[in-house]
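F.,

This is the one I mentioned.
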């Protein structure tokens, strides 16, 4: 998933659509990038991750 796709989906939510914080894009992009690196490192190490709905 690209950040652009993630951000567009976020903006489509009530929380994202209602936000007009000018720094939100940069804030979310920094955290998105960090999370992508964590998952990439885990995948490179052969670690698996599984998500389930609570």
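My design for it:
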């Amino acid at each position: 998933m690209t950040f652009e796709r993630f951000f567009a989906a976020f903006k489509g939510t009530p929380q994202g659509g209602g936000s007009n914080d000018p720094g939100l894009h940069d804030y979310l992009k920094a955290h998105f990038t960090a999370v992508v690196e964590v998952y990439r490192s885990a995948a490179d190490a052969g670690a698996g991750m599984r998500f389930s709905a609570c």
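The chain is about 65% helix and 0% strand.

Talk soon.
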